[in-house]
Amino acid sequence: MTSAPMPEFPAGFRWGVSTSAYQIEGAVTADGRGPSIWDTFAHSPGRIVDGSTGDEACDHYHRYAEDVGLLAGLGVSAYRFSIAWPRIQPTGAGPANPAGLDFYDRLVDALLAAGVDPVATLFHWDLPQALEDAGGWLNRDSADRFAEYADLVAARLGDRVKLWITLNEPFIHMSLGHGMGVHAPGRMLLFDAFPVAHHQLLGHGLAVSALRARGTAPVAIANNYSPVRLAGETDADRAAGAAYDALHNRLFTDPLLGRGYPEELGFDPAVVRAGDLDVIAAPVDVLGVNYYNPTGIRAPAEEDSPLPFEIVPLDGYPRTAFDWPVAPDGLRELLLQLHHRYGDALPPIQITESGCAYDDEPDADGRVPDPDRIAYLDGHLRAVHEAMAAGVPVTGYFVWSLLDNWEWAEGFTKRFGLVHVDYATQRRTPKSSYAWFRDLVRR
Ligand code: FCB
Predict the structure, then answer these.
(1) Phi, psi (degrees; rounded to nearest 5) at 344
(2) Is 124 annotated among the ligand-binding residues?
(3) Which atom of ligand 1 approaches the CA of 224 most closely?
(4) With 0-12 CB in 10 A as exposed, 13-18 as middle and 19+ as buried, what is 22?
(5) Least packed by Cβ within 10 Å: which of 27, 200, 231, 424?
(6) 85 is in an annotated binding site
């Protein structure tokens, strides 16, 4: 970590932290909430490394007031949370469950009272199980259901939410959830998962117009991006890199910004109906960028590989407890790439997730020192600043995450929080990164 002072960010830059519903809320049967695909998946033996579930998670559903206090103490201007669709529509269809809406109503009011802008994500992967039973995102109908749900939420919260995010990381939901089967709903379709991309994007586009009809808050989508690092120098390696880049970085962004799907992926276009691409390209006000690390790619070693690339570990970087390489330069590279690739079509960017997992535990004095996280955030913020200095319009940065939480297939084994959570007692202890980020935001 360099000792040079952090360069100044412009006035009005949005400083925030992010969470998601299933990872923190718990209370999975409270107030009429229906089951989601993550309840089903977590309760299936062998799916989660430590055998845990989100049944209790951080018990945020009951402790939200304490957590809003932590946000106020941190001094952030925004909090990105997600709304659990199965709390609003327990079966994914029909009228809103008032008790579910009430929870987010209380949360939003508490945030506003604390001077924190509510930034609400509508879909962070917890699809109502009843919709999955009808085919989930493979079924085009889910796009309409999503827009209907967006309308119900906006009718209640649209006067107070400051930024809507329709979908979180549709690429990860497609690839890990439907391509590789390591996330819910656990399907292993490889490239046959493409309809999941299209139907999520269609749902996004329909939700954009539902949200616009209910209020004036800006609308965004949060995509995951990972710049490609070639681990070979042959033409075949370069072709593999381009294929991976098209899949991870362009599949969702090209159509959003009016370019249609990347042709080289060769997906079956049968699911794309006339007019769909116009719905998907409805303008958004902000592009949410979630970044964790670059991806090492080379040509597949096996001739009959089902994939046109092979993912390889990247050497020469420090690593997080997730074994992810720490590469702040990848964030700068990615921001510049988006800027050059899309030019004037690119809306202002907010970094909607950036963070790292380390094995943080309280020391003998009860403090939780996490110097690696401070170094991580310091490096990534400098990278954002450099990209801004080079002309990329970035207007906000959200740390993943406020709290240690239930990290999907990794259960409770990965701690991403600025605040440590003792899951046995639900005690929250701000780590040293919390004080570091607070001081930064204050300046
Ligand atoms: C992102 C997810 C988020 C969290 C972080 C570590 O892909 O959006 O919920 O799991 O990774």
Answers:
(1) -65, -20
(2) yes
(3) 7
(4) buried
(5) 424
(6) no
Give the Cβ contact number of residue 273 at 10 Å.
Answer: 12
- Is 9 among the domain residues? no
The tens place of each residue's pLDDT in the chain, 443 residues long, gives 777 999 999 999 999 999 999 999 999 999 999 999 999 999 999 999 999 999 999 999 999 999 999 999 999 999 999 999 999 999 999 999 999 999 999 999 999 999 999 999 999 999 999 999 999 999 999 999 999 999 999 999 999 999 999 999 999 999 999 999 999 999 999 999 999 999 999 999 999 999 999 999 999 999 999 999 999 999 999 999 999 999 999 999 999 999 999 998 877 778 999 999 999 999 999 999 999 999 999 999 998 999 999 999 999 999 999 999 999 999 999 999 999 999 999 999 999 999 999 999 999 999 999 999 999 999 999 999 999 999 999 999 999 999 999 999 999 999 999 999 999 999 999 999 999 999 999 98
Q: Which domain holds residue 228?
A: 14-442
Rounded Cα gap, residues 92 and 81, in angstroms: 20
Dihedral of the alpha carbons of 313, 243, 187, 80, in degrees to the nearest 10: 80
56 in active site: no
In ligand 1, the atom with minimum distance to the C-alpha of 407 is 10
Task: Give catalytic status of residue 353 as yes or no.
Answer: yes
Residues with CB under 6 A from ligand 1: 20, 23, 168-169, 172, 224, 290, 353, 400, 407-408, 416
Which residues lie across from 79 on neighbouring strands?
Answer: 17, 118
Residue 292 labeled ligand binder: yes
Exactly one of 353, 361, 386, 410 is catalytic; name it.
Answer: 353
- Taking the complete model, does pTM exceed 0.70, yes or no? yes
What CA–CA distance (Å, rounded) separates 102 from 337? 42
Query: Is residue 352 one of the residues assigned to a domain?
Result: yes
Number of domains forming the structure of the chain: 1
Long-range contacts of 133-137 (CB under 8 A, 24+ apart): 136/37, 136/185, 136/196, 137/173, 137/174, 137/178, 137/195, 137/196, 137/199, 137/200, 137/203
Query: Considering only CA atoms, which residue is closest to atom 4 of ligand 1?
Result: 407
CA distance 428 to 434: 12
In a domain, 97, yes or no: yes
Select which of 132, 148, 169, 310 is catalytic. Answer: 169
Q: For residue 57, how far is its CA from the centre of ligand 1 (angstroms)? A: 15
- In sequence order, the 6+-apart residues with CB closer than 8 A to the CB of 63 are 426
Domain-located, residue 155: yes
Instruction: Answer yes or no: is 168 a known binding residue.
Output: yes
Q: CATH number of the domain that 30 lies in?
A: 3.20.20.80
151 Cβ contact list (under 8 Å, min separation 6): 210, 211, 213, 214
Q: Are 402 and 412 in contact (CB under 8 A)?
A: no
